[in-house]
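In the lab's daily routine, each protein ends up as an entry in a very long ledger. A line of letters takes care of the sequence, but it says nothing directly about the fold. The three-dimensional part falls to structure tokens, numbers that each stand for a local backbone shape. The outcome of that step, for a single protein, is printed below.
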Amino acid sequence: MTVQWVEMEEKAPMPDSRAAPIPVAQYLRMSTEHQRYSTTNQRLEINRYAATHGMRVVVTYEDSGKSGLTLWGRPGLQAMLDDVLSMRRAFQAILVFDVSRWGRFQDVDESAYYEFVCRRAGVPVLYCAEPFADVPGPMAVVIKSVKRAMAAEYSRELGAKVFAGQSLLAGRGFHMGGFPSFGLKRVLVSETGEVKGELGRRQRKSIQTDRVLLALGDPLDCGLIRLIFYLFVERRMSEADIARQLNWGGYPSRTGMLPWRGEMIRSILRNERYTGTTLYARRSCSLKTPWHENPPERWVRAEDAFPAVVSRDTFEKARVNLEARQRHYWSDDELLDVVRRVHAKHGDVTPALMMKEPGAPQTTLFIFHFGSMADACEAAGVRPNAKQCSRRNIIHRRRTTKLLLLKELADHYANMGVGFYWHPQTRRACVEGGLTLSVRSTQAYRTTNGQPFWLISPDRRVAPDVSLVARLACEGDVILDYFVIPGDEMRTGYVNKEGGAVRTWVNPYRLQSMNDVMRRLEMLRLSHPPCMPRLMTHLSKRRRKAQGIRKRDEYTSKSL
């Protein structure tokens, strides 16, 4: 009974000259491959089939230049399935040229599933160029399954052939796609090796037999690359210091705009292209699968493909230094060994001496593990100097004050029934509704004549909506007053020993008690537009991208 019902669904309705034409929809697809049938030929064949069987095409869904491997990225097929499931359709059947135009899904059950969804909604899918209607019984189901497997296998074979051809060309030193690195350019060459000219941004070759090579770009950019490697290898400067040096000198970055950043410097130091080597297949994404890193033995490498910007020896030294600096985990024993080694060599432990030690981490890592450099020295059996002890006291006072303020805010909002989230180390806090806070404290500094002053500066680590700054007394943990400053008004300011603001913009934001702080924050929270915090929004976007949500899940939930 079931097989007979499928056979009846596969057969096209018999034409009847007395009845009105049956309204149908047509689906057209053409991928970016060079293939035999275009959408024009598909349209002509579908129209001939519709006229022969008493049908009339009333709506067209088209995916031109779209791959048939997945449903994702095919808005025409997605819109058609939406219309079928939402009952907004004005057609009773769907006409497709052949099985391969419906899709080349690697899982043949996925192709059958989308067809089943349409058929269960009362809209059969008819293939105009397939002989299913002429094959009786269950043979129609068998032939259709074979056709789906053949369509999927064609994509697999074509992908393997294309990858083999591209790997062969990459091994000969040709550039296989993507933007050139900073300081390099793309050059178009003919089949005989004759240079035709330089390719600009978003330009591609127009002749199939032409090839693309990499070449040295602007001499200023190449000189900047050599300067970056020199500062990192010879001068032992960090990536952030190199970026700061280039920004001070006014050197343009890759985008032609300032500023340089440490990540940009790190990507240049890791780029093996600057040695004249081209790399291919470091990452792959075959048959629309997620991108993944390939092992080094699968990389296609072509050395001396174009003139080198830096020597291989310089690049290897930079790589070794990066590996020494970029260790993802340091144990407490390893950090203590570094402290003992620096003290035994120089008799003291300072950030400047730590920078001279090969492979030593930054001092912030010692503070993260032990609380302060003085605590790290004591744990290593080394006597800290006076500056380290003073710095430890400052860190302890600020940390204690910050935790006290955060706990008071948490208790206050808990009594109000308002959500409040905070992290003690990053100084981040968020009030329900999307208001972000930066809780800080400022201690007294001494001028040349010994008079104290307090510095109020923006938080460089986060960009909060509101900054809460507590001004501490010169001695003890007594809080003199508070400053609640909106993010768009926050800038550097000073407070003198009498408590007066050196810059007048600070005065309107001064508060004397914690109760005043709570009232001011409540006014800012109510006036703040409700939204999801920026950090939570960013994390949710990354989570959705990692999960790979697809339209298929929506269709599955609708059809169940």
